[in-house]
Design brief:
about 90 residues, alpha+beta, two-stranded parallel sheet, 3 helices
Length: about 90
């Protein structure tokens, strides 16, 4: 992905909705998704992640935003979007 994006002079975006559910996934070698994102952040400059979810508290807990031992601590940029509601006529 990184090499392809570099050759194409672009970025490769991995977008995952309901990302808090990733906390239930563990790879065969027991490498968690947080470690994969941390590795990508540190080593793959053309790969970016966009994680969204409807359970903000669980997403923050999964990412470990407040945990200094989390592989993503200090690497995550948090954007909160308020509910998107239709305007009434």
């Amino acid at each position: 992905m990184n090499d392809f994006a570099e050759r194409s002079e672009t970025k490769f975006l991995v977008a995952i909705d309901e990302a808090q559910l990733l906390r239930f996934m563990r790879g065969k070698g027991k490498i968690g998704f947080r470690q994969i994102i941390a590795y990508s952040y540190d080593n793959l400059e053309n790969v970016k992640f966009l994680l969204s979810g409807s359970e903000v508290g669980l997403l923050h807990e999964f990412l470990g935003l407040e945990d200094t031992k989390s592989p993503l601590y200090g690497r995550v940029h948090d954007i909160l979007i308020k509910d998107l509601l239709k305007e009434s006529p």
